[in-house]
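Board notes (copied after class):
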Amino acid sequence: MDKYYGWGLPIDISTHGHAIDRLINLLHVFMIVMFVGWFAFFIIALVRFRQRPGHKASYETKHFKAPTYLEIGVAVFEIVLLAGFSMPVWTALKTALPDKSKAVQVRVIAQQFAWNIHYPGPDGVFGKTDPKLIDASNPIGLDRASASAADDIVTVNQLNVPVSAPVLVQLSSKDVIHSFSLQVMRIKQDAIPGQSIPVWFEAKKTGQFEIACAQLCGLGHYRMRGFFNVQEQEDFQKWLAEQAPKA
């Protein structure tokens, strides 16, 4: 998996990743321009206003219009960046949730320090859960006695999805705030206790990657690493069959 994470951005296997990468690159260019500009101004100020024999410092306030115009220009560009680039990408992802009947539905329940993955099984209905049933062998409190839970699949730190298919994730947390990060999918969303937050993506390439927690969530935060496996549709169905509860 290390070959996918280098010095630059991780590889992009998401159908919407190009828009996010374009925004990231634009931000880097803008910051480089600002760095060069402010550093040049710093050098000019050091040279022009250095201490020299025969020169006396003036404490009178001098109003230069150029810095004001530059600051206004930077503010305008930031507004354009937010309203013209960032908000459209965010809005498109939030409002274009896939049809549940056509998407692979998954629940991801974060905890210190693991990712619990819940698939609804062949019936497409998530089984009932009860916090009273949570223990070491049942991390999400799934009530196997309920009819809809009999075929449900629960894994720990293992998220498998099919390629070229929309995946709808309902994200939540059992304890503290975590951050669900799939870098190759350009997905990052906080998992907040008491909330179920929808996140969706569609992979365009198979491979084995990782799930990271991008929020400091406790002393064991460094151990909160999961595995993200994008498979061909046939391989995904085979994997689901292997994970299905035994009668």
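Comment from the instructor: The first helix runs from residue 17 to 48. The first strand starts at residue 104 and ends at 111.
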